[in-house]
Amino acid sequence: xxxxxxxxxxxxxxxxxxxxxxxxxxxxxxxxxxxxxxxxxxxxxxxxxxxxxxxxxxxxxxxxxxxxxxxxxxxxxxxxxxxxxxxxxxxxxxxxxxxxxxxxxxxxxxxxxxxxxxxxxxxxxxxxxxxxxxxxxxxxxxxxxxxxxxxxxxxxxxxxxxxxxxxxxxxxxxxxxxxxxxxxxxxxxxxxxxxxxxxxxxxxxxxxxxxxxxxxxxxxxxxxxxxxxxxxxxxxxxxxxxxxxxxxxxxxxxxxxxxxxxxxxxxxxxxxxxxxxxxxxxxxxxxxxxxxxxxxxxxxxxxxxxxxxxxxxxxxxxxxxxxxxxxxxxxxxxxxxxxxxxxxxxxx
Length: 348
Known about the structure:
This protein is α/β, with parallel strands linked by helices and about 350 residues long. It has two domains: about 1-195, Mur-like, catalytic domain (UDP-N-acetylmuramoyl-L-alanine:D-glutamate ligase); about 205-345, Mur ligase, C-terminal domain (Protein-Tyrosine Phosphatase, Chain A), CATH 3.90.190.20. It is about 35% helix and about 20% strand. The strands form two sheets. Strands 2-3-1-4-5-6-7-8-9 form a nine-stranded mixed sheet.
């Protein structure tokens, strides 16, 4: 079992890891918190099968015998505090991914996130770090335009950074984590590179939707917490952010600096509208929208050519939608309607 957890990036990393291992010739079943649960994969499992599973804190908090061969902790920041009660409880739930591992197993850890290493300090597994910089003495890292695995014997090239087709520099970290797992399993560099070249990302995760008169619309409905929204905002130089929903906890103030730096505009929706206004209105323009249709049109009216309109809610969706996926689909539908209307006006 390869088990992948973290506050942000689990689905992207799980999907990409599964595809890399398949490209390397392995029989792989992907699931867990995405797709089929692990228990539903039993009939398809063979002795040589590698199960690649996304593991949420809700699932990990109650594990007793669950033991991944390779565990991955991508990052850690406040989330689900409405469920876990405190940051310490949330961290304790995530850390249970390591509890049953032995020295025969592996823990793949993000060296760039200061919260990650302490969470794995008691892990018995061998540790393989990954980093966006080339300062690691050992691990999987970025060296110039290459992702390499560095050991005492030197640097082994895994894939070129230029093969990554994803929006957002932070998504390179997800590629690093998947590459680290693939290198442990023994997938060759050619298979890793071909997989990454063909991977365009997941629906609702910094998903490009449309360009309307020079304004790029991007669906990041999976950005349901503050840290995920921050990463989305930092992916663009000029931005209008559609934000809001049911707030799960954390500090929205962490978004003030990146919003100010980009002279951003915020269009707020859902239950968190008042909280968003009180947090940001003194620093950047904040406009309230009654629904997604109004939000999309308000955001477009606020965006200059060359800017991006990004749905990065920093909140759960349950006040207005069934889930984040429905929220993302409604956003895309409204963008499509706007594009049709705009094209009709231009043709008149």
